[in-house]
Amino acid sequence: MSAENDDEELRRILQKKKEELLAKLSSQSTEGDSSSGNGSQEPPVAELNDSSFDEFIASHRAVVVDFWAPWCAPCFLVAPIIDDLALQHKRIAFARVNADASPETASKYYVMSLPTIMFFLDGQEVDRVVGAVPEEVLEERVQWLESKL
């Protein structure tokens, strides 16, 4: 019974942390938009689902997609790294897909473990990283993708 309580407590903590991170990102992007004057309202990391995924991939030359789930603790370790990379690499589109809420897309791309970070170039998957990895690993992959543009 104690393990179940611990699991539920961990879920609550992770959910609260996610909400805090999303609120922080939202306020940062709002501040950035008003000071940069670029008029872009697009968030640094787009939230995709089964109905928006294909269009997003098709409308951007290079895309990094983070497949995650609310119950996945390692996903919450990777999320801030993806957010930072999105702010640093403006030529690449970044997106997130909740694999639980978008099972068709997760299945279509054989996402079996979370987090899974996929790299697309011209609509085709060119690389993927499975699991929580150090920022340097993702930075290297993003730089490689950017070099192809």
Automatic annotation (TrEMBL):
<feature type="domain" description="Thioredoxin">
    <location>
        <begin position="16"/>
        <end position="147"/>
    </location>
</feature>
<feature type="compositionally biased region" description="Low complexity">
    <location>
        <begin position="23"/>
        <end position="36"/>
    </location>
</feature>
<dbReference type="InterPro" id="IPR005746">
    <property type="entry name" value="Thioredoxin"/>
</dbReference>
<dbReference type="Pfam" id="PF00085">
    <property type="entry name" value="Thioredoxin"/>
</dbReference>
<protein>
    <submittedName>
        <fullName>Thioredoxin</fullName>
    </submittedName>
</protein>
<feature type="region of interest" description="Disordered">
    <location>
        <begin position="23"/>
        <end position="47"/>
    </location>
</feature>
<dbReference type="InterPro" id="IPR013766">
    <property type="entry name" value="Thioredoxin_domain"/>
</dbReference>
<keyword id="KW-0813">Transport</keyword>
<dbReference type="InterPro" id="IPR036249">
    <property type="entry name" value="Thioredoxin-like_sf"/>
</dbReference>
<dbReference type="GO" id="GO:0005737">
    <property type="term" value="C:cytoplasm"/>
</dbReference>
<keyword id="KW-0249">Electron transport</keyword>
<dbReference type="InterPro" id="IPR017937">
    <property type="entry name" value="Thioredoxin_CS"/>
</dbReference>
<keyword id="KW-1015">Disulfide bond</keyword>
<dbReference type="GO" id="GO:0015035">
    <property type="term" value="F:protein-disulfide reductase activity"/>
</dbReference>
<keyword id="KW-0676">Redox-active center</keyword>
